[in-house]
Amino acid sequence: MKRLRALLCGVATATLATAGLAAFTTQQAAGASATTLSNRWYAAAPYLMPHDNNPPDAGAIMDATGLKAFQLAFVLAPNGGGCSPTWDGTSPVSSDTAVGSVVSAIRAKGGDVSVSIGGYGGTKLGQACSDAASTAAAYQQVITKYQLKAIDFDLEEPEYENATAIAHEIGAAKILQQNNPGLYVSVTTAGTADGTGWFGKQMLNEAKAQGFTPNNFSIMPFDGGFNGAAAQTSALTNFNSILQSTFGWDAATAYAHQGFSGMNGRSDTGEYFTQADFQTVLDYATSHHMDRFTFWSLNRDRQCTPADNNGTTSGTCSSVAQSAWDFAKYSVKFAGVTPPTTTPTTAPPTTTPPSGGNCAATAWSSSAVYTAGNTVSYGNHTWKAKWWTQNETPGTTGEWGAWQDLGAC
Predict the structure, then answer these.
(1) φ, ψ for residue 225 (rounded to 5)?
(2) Cα(138)–Cα(82) distance, rounded to whole angstroms?
(3) Distance between CA 49 and CA 122 in Å, rounded?
(4) Which residues have C-beta within 8 Å of that of residue 100, sequence separation ≥ 6?
(5) H helix or E strand, kind and range, residue 71
(6) pTM for the whole thing?
(7) For residue 401, what are the contacts with CB-CB under 8 A and spacing of at least 6?
(8) pLDDT tens-place string over residues 29-45
(9) Residue 156 catalytic?
(10) Radius of gyration over alpha carbons of the chain, in Å?
(11) C-alpha distances in angstroms, 38 versus 150, 245, 252?
């Protein structure tokens, strides 16, 4: 992803917001802490740089928005050469504790992470490793280290102009998919007005040749002369046609394997994408039953001072007028959850369970605020809140809703 990596490559690594947490280990990642969410949440995970661009506190975002999943970026080859995974080319995954602490904190609150590999600039493992198998082995270290249930292949410049490197990446993705049953795999690449460019189409052809089908192929319709949501939805329509012609899918099947990855606020090239634009694209994505809706980045999902940032693009704020985490709420909506309008402060009162055969939990109330773990009774069933919720009737939004059905009373 272009998204300020080139503009901010000299920025010093920021202090992690969760630096005070205990060091992360593979053992801590295993078992109950290795949370598994629905695919819909992994598909809605916005990008977060845990090392750079003034990382926000993931837990605070979760509390404020109901967000559950984060796309941590980026894993690259070492800057000094070699076929081993590092964060941003500088911090070896094998000895990492800092990013691991972020992962632990997110999982402790009931969330989970995906990891994005690649991005705009830097040396990718597909370039540095000798073949698909060694590339996959490097990425498997990341999956094992953090007990991942999802991974994102962000194939951009300069890697996606290198046919051999792309063959390594696609081959690695196929191997990981086979060796890690249930792994959610997304492939993200550049978007153009036509859907994607020549190199993006070659990447799709490579996937077809290798017999590889990820959960989705996502395009990034920005930094290419886009003018708001109408241009983005047009690109998504055109990309759907490319997927149909490449893989022989019908439109519905193509949409079911298609994703959107936007940029909130001001893009690198001076385009502007507001909350209204995000709502329009979200409506398009949900009405066409697309598989993924994400954006770059949570580090930027807050207002600059001044709000327009004097007509420049920042890695730490959006350069448009907004409240903190406005754009994250669109990912929450895509996952099928109603985001809170205010940060929860109190839990609903509890009462002494009634005697007899009635439901023991307090009756659900549309005006009450519930937090994760609260139980209510509704429709002669007991329900447990998965996260913060208000005015969401138990059972009305299926598996994507805030309530878990514990069964009849």
Answers:
(1) 80, 30
(2) 10
(3) 15
(4) 23, 24, 25, 28, 29, 145, 146
(5) strand 69-76
(6) 0.80
(7) 336, 337, 386, 392, 394, 395
(8) 433 346 789 999 999 99
(9) yes
(10) 21
(11) 10, 30, 21
